[in-house]
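Re: Re: token formats

Sure, here are both.
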Amino acid sequence: MQDAYPDLDDVQQIEEPAIAIPVSVQVDGPVVVHQLPSRTGPVTTEILSTTPVKVLSADPKRRRAVICGTGDWYVSHINSASGGGVWPEVVPLVIEHGDAVYAYVVGMGASTLTIVTEYWAD
């Protein structure tokens, strides 16, 4: 006759972790991959002026960032008011690299950036 009250270990069926042994792998042919969801996704805002400000620091853990402004703004990977490209208002800019990003407003107008950042790791 079976025990009417099994042990907690029997119910949970927790297995002991195996010892991790490094193994060299060489891929030969196509490999199916699945993109995992981002670990975190903080949202920030930045009010721009005519002086370049760092809106994203360099970070190798950043998966991507989406930036949208309320007015036209310049975007650059260097801290310089003489470089970069003009990005139009309310058009999202998707950045999928880990470099620093600087921004400043076009002309004497005003622009507020909304920055949504997604990270691969904590």
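Second one below.
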Amino acid sequence: MGQDLSGAFGIRAYLAVLQAPRSRQWREEVWLQGTGKSWKALREFPARLQRVADEIESLNTNFFRIPEGCANSVLIKLSELPAGLRSYAEMVKSRETRIPKAFLAPTHSRRLVELSNFAKWITGSYHDKEMAAILTGVAIAIKSNAEFYAMDLSQARYRVLQGRLPIESRSH
């Protein structure tokens, strides 16, 4: 006998109907939690650190007049500070750019594609018309105004494959 996948299917259908969080908001909640920074502020932070390093370097040279090969431990730490800030700036920049592009917010299109692919895995075909009817039924059950059409599913698959902006379900 085959495995009952109706629960897994139902959950995927429910998730596909739920309103997806905005990509920026979701990204900031996941990656920047507890930092006190927005994504924009994080992207600008390395350049800000570089400018501070330049200012400290100028102060070290022109105000503190720290000579090369100085033996004073405090002055040595002051002279090393700009290099440390530049290294930190590079690490922040590297981390921000390395965040995987595949780790994206669960948009409606992605959820529709996951459900569509799950249906194909179970049945061997996408069944867009039937899937749209099921999704619209789920939307009605949870008192959502969303309405789905077979074209929504095929467009979602195409757009996700092409890396284009996700579509949203149509509303009344």
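Helices lie at 6-17, 23-31, 39-62, 73-98, 108-123, 128-141, 150-162. The longest strand covers residues 146-147.
- S.
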